[in-house]
Design a protein that fits this description.
It contains seven helices and 25 strands. The protein is mainly beta. The chain folds into two domains: 111 residues, Cytochrome Bc1 Complex, Chain D, domain 2 (Orthogonal Bundle), CATH 1.10.760.10; 361 residues, Neuraminidase (6 Propeller). The strands form seven sheets. It has a four-stranded antiparallel β-sheet with strand order 1-25-24-23, with no helix packed on it. A four-stranded antiparallel β-sheet has the order 7-8-9-10, with no helix packed on it.
Length: 515
């Protein structure tokens, strides 16, 4: 819903049309981050007496599970909590709670409804590829496994014209997956992928430095054979940050080369940052995606790989928190937004990004789209417009993990107008942890033509969005709770592939039309 269309809906009328969802126990406060813990406590102290500790409802108030009569967006709930609805006994909380507290309560309700938590990354949830036909609104399809037993931490696939698929495994290298599902040895001579683990989060999630990211073939690959490889370029004792920390540092780097007889040859550097901007920030937040347009340009995403989640993202003389645009040979396009300045990265196309996860050039209308992680809420689908600011860390529709608003402007000494921040076309709150996206042009699924297919990590789901005139008009979940969907790609024959990340081994599966 657009921000200027927010309606003041009321909790007293949050009855639902469908049968309520399965109840889940209230989460342990100790197991959550501070912001989530505060949200739980606020709900228990102020709302549970009427709506039930598990949102199941009570004699004094309706349940908050199932389909809500008046909508289930963040904006709906925030407005309802703040305004109240005296006619049905729902008080206004605007005077009792701060706007941040109201947003935290609304987030907790949405997260509980969606069964979202911030404890597990769902690497080891059971992975079962269903045998049956899967129904959806427009197409029925099956899932067919193309390859299994891959490294648990892949990043990207790139279908080739002959039916083979290029694969990057973050910590090890590049493989070729054959049509029969067999895999090649690692291609020799590619940039090094580092398999040592920099840190391990409390949930067991690996956080490395110097991983491989996206792989893609040039639009004219059949004539020139160019393969583009994006990766975390790692070094030690190579800048002041590394020497001061006594640790290696890395930064995104793009090269191209050719694959001949199992070897990487003819390598050329296409884009790299200044060595002083290499950092100790983990590659989980590196962004790491690339895509090509129809005019000889390549776009690349660099996440918040600066000193922290906030510093330098709004500055044009740093590479991180940006989408960059270069010519496919590495030169700077003359029409880039900042091409005429010497005091900035002239490759910058957009800025103000936290963790861009997907990047796709829609050839049907010449638009560039991205998906992006917020912190707690605030996942986004963005239409990327040249020279525009996408807000991080000045503003977000989500909240920080500590429960406070995303509002770092005063701390960074930045004054801005909200009208100057590009708002997402689709706000995904609560956060499914968005990943790759494509705009389908597949003749195998003609009713999905020009629809967005979007993966997710934490939610382990595949979504279909229909966006018309840059507005979301339809949303459907095609697959739910399958596995962490790391990448989505469309082959030359229209085949749609998913790259599934899982602790027992990654898989590549294909969506095959039923019948």
């Amino acid at each position: 819903m657009e921000r200027n269309e927010i309606k003041h809906l009321h909790w007293g009328h949050l009855a639902f049309f469908l049968v309520a969802m399965v109840l889940v126990p209230a989460p342990s406060i100790q197991a959550q981050g501070q912001g989530v813990a505060d949200s739980i406590q606020l709900f228990r102290d102020n709302c549970a007496v009427c709506h039930g500790e598990n949102l199941e409802g009570d004699a004094q108030g309706p349940p908050l599970l199932g389909e809500l009569q008046h909508g289930d967006s963040m904006a709906n709930l925030v407005a309802s909590i703040g305004d109240g609805y005296a006619a049905t006994g729902m008080p206004s909380w605007a005077d009792a709670l701060t706007i941040a507290q109201i947003r935290n309560v609304a987030l907790y309700i949405l997260e509980t409804r969606a069964n979202v938590d911030y404890v597990t990354f769902n690497h080891d949830q059971p992975l079962v590829i269903p045998d049956e036909i899967i129904a959806s609104n427009l197409h029925a399809f099956r899932l067919v496994t193309i390859a299994a037993g891959l490294d648990p931490l892949p990043f990207s696939i790139a279908p080739l014209p002959d039916g083979r698929i290029l694969l990057t495994e973050k910590k090890f290298g590049v493989r070729i997956i054959n049509p029969d599902g067999s895999k090649s040895d690692y291609i020799t001579g590619t940039p090094r992928a580092w398999s040592d683990i920099n840190t391990v989060a409390s949930n067991g999630n690996e956080r490395g430095l110097g991983w491989l990211f996206d792989i893609a073939i040039h639009p004219n690959y059949q004539e020139n054979g160019w393969v583009y490889l994006y990766f975390g370029d790692r070094c030690s004792d190579c800048n002041a940050v590394s020497r001061e920390a006594g640790q290696p540092v890395s930064m995104n780097k793009l090269v191209r080369g050719r694959i001949e007889d199992g070897a990487w040859v003819d390598e050329e550097v296409i884009w790299e940052a200044n060595i002083e901007h290499y950092s100790t920030m983990i590659d989980v937040i590196a962004g790491g995606c690339i895509d090509f347009d129809d005019s000889g340009h390549v776009f690349l995403s660099v996440g918040a790989k600066g000193p922290d989640n906030f510093e330098g993202i709004q500055d044009l003389d740093t590479p991180w928190g940006k989408i960059h645009r270069i010519n496919d040979d590495g030169s700077i396009p003359a029409d880039n937004p900042f091409a005429g300045r010497d005091d900035v990265y002239r490759s910058i196309y957009t800025y103000g990004h936290r963790s861009p996860q997907g990047l796709f050039w829609d050839r049907s209308n010449g638009q560039l789209w991205s998906t992006e992680h917020g912190q707690r809420g605030g996942d986004e689908v963005n239409l990327l417009l040249p020279g525009q600011n996408y807000g991080w860390p000045l503003y977000s529709l989500g909240m920080k993990y500590d429960g406070t608003p995303v509002a770092q402007g005063p701390e960074l000494g930045i004054v801005f107008e909200l009208a100057d921040i590009q708002q997402p076309v689709v706000d995904l709150t609560p956060s499914p942890a968005v990943s790759s996206l494509i705009v389908s042009s597949s003749d195998q699924f003609p009713a999905w033509r020009n629809d967005f297919l979007k993966g997710s990590l934490k939610a382990r789901s595949l979504f279909r969005f229909r966006i018309q005139n840059n507005r979301l008009v339809e949303r459907e979940t095609l697959l739910e709770g399958l596995a962490r969907i790391r990448d989505i790609e469309q082959g030359f024959d229209g085949a749609i592939y998913l790259l599934l990340e899982h602790a027992t081994g990654a898989r590549i599966v294909q969506l095959v039309p039923a019948g």
